[in-house]
Amino acid sequence: MRRKILLLLIVNITMFTNIAYAKQHASVDENIQLVEEQKFQSNDIYYESFADLVEQLAPAVVNVSTEQIVRDENIRFPQLPGGSLFEEFREFFERIEPFMNRNQDANKEVISLGSGFIIDESGIIVTNYHVIADAKEITVTLNDNTQSKATILGKDPKTDLAVLKIDTDKKLSFVRFGNSDKARVGDRVIAIGNPFGLGGSVSTGIVSAIARNINIGTVSDFIQTDAAINKGNSGGPLFNMNGEIIGINTAIFSPSGGNVGIGFAIPSVIAEQVIELLKEGKKVEHGWIGVKVQAVTKEIADSLGLEATHGALVAEITKGSPADKAGIKVGDIIVEFNETKVTKMSQLPQVVSRTEIGKKVNIKLYRKGEVVGTTVKVGRIQDDEDLTQDEDDLYFDYIGVTVSSLPNEFKKENDGVNGIVVLNVDVKSNAHAKGIRRGDIITHINQNEIKNIDEFKKIISQVKKEDKESVALLIKRQNNNLYVTIKLK
Question: Its Enzyme Commission number (predicted)?
Answer without folding.
Answer: 3.4.21.107
